[in-house]
Design brief:
Elements lengths: L2 H24 L5 E7 L3 E3 L6 E9 L4 E4 L4 E3 L4 E4 L2 E4 L4 E3 L9 E4 L2 E5 L6 E4 L2 E2 L8 E7 L15 E3 L1 E4 L1 E5 L4 E3 L2 E3 L3 E3 L5 E3 L2 E3 L4 E6 L2 E3 L2 E3 L2 E8 L3 E8 L11 E6 L9 E5 L6 E5 L4
Parallel strand pairs: 1-3, 2-4, 3-5, 3-6, 4-7, 5-8, 6-9, 7-10, 8-11, 9-13, 10-14, 11-15, 13-16, 14-17, 15-18, 16-19, 17-20, 18-21, 19-22, 20-23, 21-24, 22-25, 23-26, 24-26
Antiparallel strand pairs: 12-13, 25-28, 26-27, 28-29
Length: 291
């Protein structure tokens, strides 16, 4: 074969090789659109990630939706209502909303099991929607209704969020939910019922824990600049070994305040207890008039 022909053949082979590599390894996976009612067990895989909501989703009772490890789900301001079971594997990223649009939410009436690991936490990223200058903004949220399946430590079944990072995502709890070893910023935790466990978690950016019902256990948490508020018909809450601090270097006290409140029953009293770090290392305010 002439030398010139051999050279041309070699160049053609090299070009084809680069083209093949580009097709096989360089192409990005297009988003997988999802919406509607999920009526059978379904898995959202990394192969088809990201999964983009194009409408609201309902997981029917008795049905399991599993989000695999390292999957990205973009809510785009829509919501998932879980009447069945939603399982989120370690390393998944859940983007609930985009700031300036509907913030997006997960409403749990069945089971949410979101269990990350120390090396692969689950990420929940939320959004803020400003209605107007005089109206409080809406934020993304995960809400557990009174119909959720309570967490059972013996069987490992029920609702749990563990080793997750939540940014601009509030958590509302009305049943026995385990919220353990998490980091939350830009939003707080609201307990309105049940006997949830909120433990070993860090709330930063002045985020707080509000308790207006139920018999919660609030233990071994750190609140940077936030507070714990107890009000309304709260039945014997256990609030112990929580650190309340303020990272502001201008704050007059450098050490954290260790708060321990065990027992107590406000009943139907209109009063409230506010526990926060103010101008003394620890301050507990009892307001029997509710003002």
């Amino acid at each position: 074969m002439p030398k010139q022909a051999c050279t041309m053949l070699l160049i053609a082979i090299i070009i084809c090789g680069f083209t093949f590599v580009g097709i096989s390894f360089g192409a990005a996976q297009p988003p997988t659109p999802v919406n509607g009612i999920i009526t059978q067990n379904t898995t959202w895989t990394k192969t088809n990630s990201p999964h983009n909501l194009q409408g609201n989703i309902l997981v029917e009772k008795g049905v399991v939706l599993t989000i695999e490890s390292n999957v990205i789900v973009n809510f785009n301001g829509f919501y998932i209502r879980v009447n069945g079971t939603l399982i989120i594997r370690p390393g998944a990223t859940i983007n609930l909303g985009v700031t300036g649009t509907n913030p997006g939410l997960i409403q749990v009436n069945g089971v949410l099991s979101a269990r990350g690991t120390s090396t692969q936490p689950i990420f929940f990223n939320g959004a803020i929607y400003w209605w107007g200058a005089s109206v409080p903004p809406s934020k993304s949220s995960i809400s557990f209704s009174t119909y959720t399946l309570p967490w059972n430590q013996q069987t490992g079944d029920g609702c749990i969020i563990e080793k997750a990072v939540l940014k601009n995502v509030g958590v509302g709890i009305s049943n026995h939910v385990k919220f353990d070893n998490n980091t939350i910023s830009g939003a707080g935790i609201s307990v309105t019922g049940g006997s949830p466990l909120v433990a070993h978690s860090v709330l930063s950016s002045g985020d707080s824990i509000s308790i207006s019902g139920g018999s919660p256990i609030i233990s071994n948490n750190r609140l940077d600049g936030g507070y714990i508020l107890i009000k309304g018909a709260v039945d014997r809450p256990i609030i112990t070994n929580n650190l309340i601090s303020n990272p502001d270097p201008k704050w007059p006290f450098a050490s954290s305040a260790s708060i321990s409140v065990v027992g107590g029953d406000l009943g139907d009293s209109p009063g409230e207890i506010l526990i926060k770090k103010q101008y003394t290392p620890k301050q507990c305010i009892w307001n029997p008039t509710g003002r």
